[in-house]
Design goal:
The chain has 222 residues and is mostly helical. It is built from seven helices and no strands.
Length: 222
Amino acid sequence: MRFSFFSLFYESPFVKLKRHADKVKECAQMFKEAVQCYVQQDCDKFEELTEEVAKLESQADELKRNLRNHLPRGIFMPMDKFVFLDCLREQDHVVDDVEEALYWLSFKPMGKIPEDLVEDFLDLIDAVIPAIEKMPDMSEQALVYFRNSTEENRNKLKSTVREIYQAEKEADHLEHELKKRAFAALKDPVEIYHIVRLVEIIGDICDHAQNASDRMRTMIAR
């Protein structure tokens, strides 16, 4: 793999992509804890956790803007710059949708997930978390690969991409099943809309994680 001599004096964009991914990962357990808090009804930390996620989303946005504005111009990059930026954008959407899901939950009183759907709903959250938490691994492995493009490093990165894909596939299945159960169990159109839209937003979290991994796969394609 060829690199411009001058690019040796610039920090790899994957370093900043990893910093952004770390912020995305930070929101994962907060998201899970906030949802569990909401379902339990007697928890008083839901608003606090939602605010913390909102702060992380703002910090991630700042890192995204900084990375976009400080990509070295005129310097050879070992991948398509626009694919890299698209990967960053999809990664940023992950934390955007985590924040949106918590806001959507807050529109109805605590504990308003129908009892018959709670277990499946929490299973969906558990399926989504691994995809969020794999974001920093993917960025770090990309950093290593583009510095030392061995087949071993490439295979490690591809393995992480596959893991994110599998997480999205599982979450997608649970999303569809939960929607069907919601229509079967609920009568109130407002309740149906609230839970179905909530499930869609949570499913979008995994979709964006997979989209980011797809862009990464494009960057390492030969």
